[in-house]
Amino acid sequence: MGIQPWVIVEAPDARGLRKVVINGEVVGSAWSFDELVRILGRLGHPPSMDMDDPATVLWRGGDRAAWPDRPWRRRATAAVMLLGLLASAVLHMLIGWPDALKALTFAQRIVGAIFVLAGLVQCVAAAAVFDHFGRRHARASGALVLLGAFIALPTSATLIFMWLEEREYTPYLLVFVPLSLWSVWALFLLVREKAWRGVPQPKKFAAGVLFSGLLTAVSLAYSTMYQPTAEPIRFVLKATFGRPQTDTDSDYVAVPLTLYVKNDGGIPVYIVNDDYTVWGSAFSRSKEGEGLRNWAQDTKFRYVPEAERYARASDREVLRTGHFYGPGAWLDAGEEFSSQKVVRLPKDAPYSELEATVGMNYMRKDRGRIEDRFGSPVFSWDRNNRRFYCPPEKCGENVVYHGRVLHNNNLVNVTRRPRYITAIWSPRRGPSVFISSFDFTRRGLYVYGESIDKAEVAREKNRFGTAMISANAKLLTSGFLTRPGDG
């Protein structure tokens, strides 16, 4: 029977790592001859021991020169794997965190939480890279890295698919396009080396991977294909004139006006612009029934074409106008608001009829979020605010509200250019609303009518669920206004 050697150095494995066995027990592994000497030194073997003596060291699968490890390649592969997992983890958290905290619906928050959880799993997988590409002390490290790479593939593929719909540049494009290529490379590498080996119950692990993949696919499909609830928006909007108040010692009449709105539906909404206007108009009598013959001339004084036989319409004049609720505020489901206004008229004002109109532009809160700065007005005639300034002789005098608008589905936000909502109000032109990629970063302000991209505005309004509602009321002035010539 031969003499049992003190040390056995096993043949290199697929990565070039050789196990070191002493007295039948694995005491370590070495990538190189120098590392083998250090291991033996820590165990008390003298540096002068003869490594070529078969009675001292038994070399299997190659002699002392057989060290096939390529450290630069192994470390580079580990570094690329680590960076890819960390980048994917950060991307998942950036996508999921806003939805998990601020999404309006519970389902959207669940989807956001799934993305955050996926990012945390990839952080654990990134930590497992050091062991999997090192000594592999933890049996499950390879499976964890495989799971992290598997999570990255459907997310990056979906982001590319969504980006192709608009093909707009976004900084995230520099992340998810390389990330998709990385995920294919990482999965190919890990599957080729069967990274799941060493897991105590590989079938259960495979089932878990498939379940996580299915969950990710479902959440992505829900996020990309889900359209916010189709429940209609219902409002109660009213304008009501009160009883005119007169005073014998005054030359004026005070006409109360009550404006009322209630969100009678189940979806909260932003009020992005609003306006109320009180008009005064006069009619001249047409005893001969000439009103029908001259209806084409009268139509220019009306919003809706009408014809009346015994009355002729005249031009309308604005008596009072302004905001009712205020841009940037919102109405929760069931919330109501009312405001009292007073219209003051001279007793001899030449009006036979008063008309009040109230309108609101709203945006569904289940479609998007508007940043807080939108509610702070800026003035187009203010030279100190160069970003929004436009000469009054060119643009008129406008009050402008401007801010970022975000989709409730953050997957859309990272695959599109930023969108901004702009509301404009002035006494002469009334309210208007635009949603587009314009951010007032240059002169030539399109919102003042110079270069409106009507197709983009219409598309974005539809996506964010913006619309307008209006109501009106009329009051005959007979009995409280003494018009010239009435006696």
TrEMBL record:
Keywords, comma-separated and alphabetical: Membrane, Transmembrane, Transmembrane helix
TM regions (residue ranges): 78-98, 110-130, 142-163, 169-191, 203-222
Organism superkingdom: Bacteria
Name this polypeptide is given: Yip1 family protein
Species of origin: Streptomyces fragilis
Keyword Transmembrane: yes
